[in-house]
């Protein structure tokens, strides 16, 4: 499938009604709560819009987070300062409409999140995700994310590693 998408900040002109990723909580979030979270500065929502169909093909959210130093695997902490917490950027939600799943769009959203994190004024050590289930965790592990020692469904990807992976 050849896609022509633009990734942009969610705004009221985006039609969210037809979006369906197969996970009702993620569908409801986009249609009912995303705008409110953006207005309240809880998180930002970015949508991949199919230019040909004028439809939301996928979305993800970003917000500030912290990563407890003690939850990182030992091999990741060797070269880090021993601060109690490290700054992180949380991908709170990531969903791809059923019509676009398998197209590589999820990977494109991770790359977009990485680039936005790099360009942000506050420093961020890593991208952080809380996978909703084992399939989601496997998707993130495939992209180089590492499980936290205390919570295996929570994974992180150091920005420095991501830069090597995604260029």
From TrEMBL:
Keywords: Acyltransferase, Repressor, Toxin-antitoxin system, Transferase
Pfam families: Acetyltransf_7 (PF13508)
Gene3D superfamilies linked to this entry: 3.40.630.30
Domain N-acetyltransferase: 25-167
Highest taxon, organism lineage: Bacteria
Entries under PANTHER family matching the protein: ACETYLTRANSFERASE, ACETYLTRANSFERASE-RELATED
Catalysed reaction equations from the record: glycyl-tRNA(Gly) + acetyl-CoA = N-acetylglycyl-tRNA(Gly) + CoA + H(+)
PROSITE patterns tied to this protein: GNAT
SUPFAM superfamilies associated with the record: Acyl-CoA N-acyltransferases (Nat) (SSF55729)
GO molecular function: acyltransferase activity, transferring groups other than amino-acyl groups
Source taxonomy: Bacteria, Pseudomonadati, Pseudomonadota, Alphaproteobacteria, Hyphomicrobiales
The protein's name: GNAT family N-acetyltransferase
InterPro entries: Acyl_CoA_acyltransferase, GNAT_dom
């Amino acid at each position: 499938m050849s896609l022509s998408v633009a990734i942009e900040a969610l705004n009221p002109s985006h039609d969210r009604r037809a979006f369906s990723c197969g996970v009702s909580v993620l569908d409801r979030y986009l249609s009912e709560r995303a705008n409110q979270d953006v207005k309240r500065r809880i998180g930002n929502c970015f949508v991949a819009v199919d230019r040909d169909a004028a439809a939301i093909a996928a979305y993800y959210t970003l917000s500030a987070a912290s990563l407890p130093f003690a939850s990182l695997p030992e091999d990741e902490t060797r070269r880090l300062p021993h601060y109690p917490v490290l700054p992180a950027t949380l991908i709170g939600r990531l969903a791809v409409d059923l019509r676009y799943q398998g197209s590589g769009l999820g990977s494109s959203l991770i790359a977009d999140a990485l680039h936005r994190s790099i360009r942000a004024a506050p420093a961020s050590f890593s991208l952080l995700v809380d996978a909703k289930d084992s399939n989601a965790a496997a998707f993130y592990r495939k992209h180089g994310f590492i499980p936290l020692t205390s919570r295996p469904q929570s994974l992180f990807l150091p920005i420095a590693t991501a830069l090597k992976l995604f260029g």
